[in-house]
Fold:
Amino acid sequence: MNSLPSPPPPPPPPTLEQVCHVVNNYPIIDNHAHNLLLPTHLDTVPFETITTEAQGRALRDTFKSLPHLRAARQLRQLYELQDNADWDDVREQRIEWLRSAPERLYQKCFEGTHALLLDDGLTGPGKVYPYDHHDRYAKAPSKRIVRIETVAEQLMESILRDASEGDLRDESYLTDIWITFTEEFEREIQEAIQDTEVAGFKTVICYRTGLDIEPDYEIAAREVGDPFERYVERCIRKRKFRIQKKPLNDYLVLRALEVLSERLPHKEALSKPLQLHTGLGDNDIGLRESNPAYLQPLIENYSRIPFVLLHSAYPYTQEAGYLATVYKHVYLDVGEVFPMVSRDGQKTILRQALELTPGSKLLYSTDGHYFPETFWLANKQFREVWLEILLEYIEKEDITPHQAIAMTKDILFNNANSLYDLRYQADYQDLATEAPKPIAWHPKPDPPAETSGPLPSVPLFRSEGPTASPSQTPSFPPPPQSPQVYDLSVFEAFMQRNSEVKYVYVEWLDYMATIRARILPIKEFEGLIREGNRIGISQGNTGTLQNDGITPVVNPVGQIYVEPDLRSLRRTHRKDPLPSATVLSFWRDEAGNPIRECPRSNLEILVNDLKFNHGISLLIGFEIEVTFLKQSTSTTDHSPYMPLTQTHAWGTLTPEQWLHLPLLIEIADNLQETGIPLQQFHAESGPGQYEFVLPPLPPLLAIDTLIQARQMIAQIAATHNLRATLHPQPFPGIGTAAHAHISLDPPNRDIQFFVGGVLRHLAAICAFSMPERSSYARVKDDAWTGGTWVAWGTQNRETPLRRVRDGRWEVRCLDGLANMYFALSAIVGAGLLGVKSGENEFVEKDVNVNPSLLSESQRREFGVTEKMPTSVEEAMAALEEDEMLGTVLANGFVRDFLSMKRAEQEMLGKMGDEERRVWLIERY
Structure:
């Protein structure tokens, strides 16, 4: 008889290493936080308030508090400073990061955050980002927490906007205002209940009149009349709308609770939660009245509304824990005390919270506000202290590792996910464990193995030695010896999709827009990024010409370090002889810092300045105009090239062109297969000339994609024995450009950016955007090439700047010989100058006709008084004279660029016209 199959062995119990991994890496639903400050308001709030509720003169003493000293030490790690750096060093490094790499700082501060629930009523909308802006820093969309006092105050400000003291003499006026206000307040609460973007509500009555709230709605409604009338009188006379009268504050909370209770689908259903500020606050709070014990009668009267007691209710944590224990609909949030309280205080607070409260009733939040560092410090300190407590409880056998893991997941994610009905899925990878070996099954488990020695007394994630598990990546490693910029998750995700890749082309664009490359086997490339290394090349390589000719800029002493930017990692096309990928790179110094010679870093700094200091984001879409050439068969023509097609005009599809569609389709298919979503392609005006339109992307990604797409087009053409050139005028007549469409978000400052900035520096910009002699042969009047006048016009293709619509412009004085990082840096830098000037009136008007057809007096009426440069020499002279543009670009960059261009022009000037044309065609 066949025996029954043996049951599978039970899974091994969790280890301490797994407990540490969960605590350090499990994603967080931050159930209470506030909006980040806009870049323009970062200096309006003292940075040292990140660890204290003190204000004014009391703030001076915070530098000697344990919370501040601990946070200052940890911020040195965040900013990659030496251990002996002081607070001034921290502030200076922070300012530098906000200037040069703000996005990196913000992303780093929100690592591990899955979602944010934001109380966006802390301050006015003109001071902070809107709540949904924060989506970019978390895995899941942010949700709102509606502050009921802010709703009420904004309503009253709107209702009484045009009111005067004379209105108070009308006997029915105050009654009418009460009816209007209560109806509008109820409507706002009802709409928020229905709004899927609203996760819950909040009251700050603790700050206003204390938590001793009248629990009976009917009594509160009877007592609110006179206080409301006095409040309205003050609003009209003093234009101050803050609600701080106990009967009125009590009524608002109770009315909100009544509305929340009214429309529940069945008797067991719970409403959206109400958060209450309890305990810890600034000196505006009455500390005795912030004790949540006052809330017990209110909690009993509204049993279908979840109450969330915020901020650990410190110093009343035990009282709050009791309420969360004995009432099913009460929860305790263990937030704000990280990083506002010392380490010992935090441990005491967590212990008190756990004295009675079940793990299923605890929530975590940062109370992060204004500065991203508040989120980072809170998360870091909570994980540290929570792990210390869990390890102690495990050592004393109060809980098992399995229970510690379950409790951690509940507090960080599951409890909030359930309470606020978010329905998110945790994005988390368990620590890899060795599969259990097959052994005989026994009905009774073996006794547990004895451990040798006590459990570790310090958090395991702080170990600086090698980890026992190569798959474990601690959330908070020790400060690196050099800046670590590689996001390994990007590489790992790429390799999962492209496991066949065996080589990587590590590429960079030099000053002359020549692609330089190193080819690394995938094993070497992976080792490079996992170890945080870079590729060293001679400093002199930054100063050579297209043929490695030496220029005065060449410095053979020293090194630069090529750092792959994994955001640009892309699979090569299917015709590449290697199973490979390409990646664009930064240039760094030995310490990993950006260097002034780096084309990509300089652009990124300018884009970040525009975005984080002025609130303007850019999208750029490029048009790739390319001419396909074949070997000439003419015996009389000395040119080695001739156009692929001759029967050719804009937008046509002649039989001759139709025969070459397989080439175009092959290019289009390969672009899209490698993740470049081509929008369209079509014939251009010149023989053999076509245009491929790329989608709008953020600036750095847009240029990286442009370079990779151009390279792909040229390589696929080469497999057909064709040359794909970007030369501005490969043959007399029709030219080839590289128009860029630039969109501003928000669009309302586009005139400042383009007219007040780009247009006024356009002659100097041309040194970057049209960098060769042939660039100027392309530009003519009446030829749709942007014309010869410094002007702008809506839908005017005879101006170098065409305004397509509000916020979207086309730069037409741009061709394929430009180093596009440099050209865009000059455009963004000039635009920044325009934005910073603050001007709103400009003499340069919207030109609705061809400027070349106007008389001098007519052009003057439009503010058109300057001609575009007619040669690269004129453009270089304009750049040299434009000191304002030079100051916004990297220090010394313009000098080096002009020195190299003059050396290049001297080299090209020694060639004949035909030799020079062929030389450029073969390189661009």
